[in-house]
Amino acid sequence: MKSNTNIVYSIPWNLFLITLGSVIVAVGIKAAIIPHGMITGGFSGLGLLFYYGSDILTPGIWYLILNVPVFVIGWKFISKRFLYYSLYGAGILTLFFDLVNFTFDISDPWLAALAGGTLVGAGSGIVFRSLGSGGGNDIISILLNQKFSLRIGTYNFMFNFVLFAGSFGYLDTDIILYSMATSYIASQAIEYCMGLFNQRKMILIISRDLPAIADQIIEKMQRGATFLKGRGAYTGEDREVLLTVANTFQIKRIEEIVFNIDPDAFMITENTFNVLGRGFSRRKVY
């Protein structure tokens, strides 16, 4: 576990995530979104609005200009390390905004919205796996997530909704609706990428053979377990409930352990967005 932690906090690993994610975002925007006149969400979308309206500079330069005030926020409220990584992310994203010069051969705007939203969301999700960001609205969303536990994808969609509402009068209604669809797809892709490797299953087991089940889970699954005190609502009897946490691939094996020991057991499986602690994810400190 120590080595995994060292990798997560290593400079090469974080630069790799930021670079890969930024390239994917740039491809999604330049190859799928801009050719159809749509805008993305966040500061990149705001930059595209300025680009469409003024026809001066480039989307990448507009994005860099808009980043200046939020970098001050990142420096003051998050950390210097986060700021340095974010400066790198904003620079890479700006660079590839201008380097990507090909487009996808997509004629249907709905397919373009699907492709662009998926790429932008997946790329942003990869960047968010690092200890930095791509700059812009990402800095604000991470700050709100750290301070108030507001989900990043949720905040981005809320910001984008306001952005798109302000776009009426500047863009065709159809384009705005396509852009809103792109934003929604991107927000879902962000949440999926962020939870892809963190999601665990919380399992509650009620049985008269809990000690035997717990021993098997510890021995065969190499997972810890905790006995909780409970009381049957109907019978009023005191009984214990076994709590354990596992990944998705271990659910079936735990199910076999439980019902091979006690066919009459009761097993409840719940999704968890994130599990922090020994044997699972470590708390991310920006």
Report the β-strand fraction as a percent range.
Answer: 5-15%
Helix content estimate? 55-70%
| Spatial order of the strands forming the largest sheet | 2-3-1-4
On the 0-100 scale, what is the average pLDDT?
A: 84
- Large-scale geometry: elongated
Order of helices and strands: HHHHHHHHHEHEEHE
Radius of gyration (CA) equals 23 Å
Main sheet overview: 4 strands, antiparallel
Number of helices: 11
Structural class: alpha+beta
Q: What is the domain total for the residues?
A: 2
Written description of the protein model:
The chain has about 290 residues and is α+β, with helices and mostly antiparallel strands. The protein has 2 domains: about 1-195, no CATH class; about 200-270, Alpha-Beta Plaits, CATH 3.30.70. It is about 60% helix and about 10% strand. It has helices at about 1-10, 10-35, 40-55, 60-75, 80-100, 110-130, 135-150, 150-165, 175-195, 210-220, 250-260, and strands at about 200-205, 225-230, 240-245, 265-270. It has a 4-stranded antiparallel sheet with strand order 2-3-1-4, covered by helices on one side. Helix 4 runs antiparallel to helix 5 (about 80-100) and helix 4 (about 60-75) packs parallel to helix 7 (about 135-150). It is elongated and about 75 Å long.
List keywords for this structure.
286 residues, alpha+beta, Alpha-Beta Plaits, 2 domains, 11 helices
Summarize the structure.
It is built from eleven helices and four strands; from the N terminus they run H-H-H-H-H-H-H-H-H-E-H-E-E-H-E.
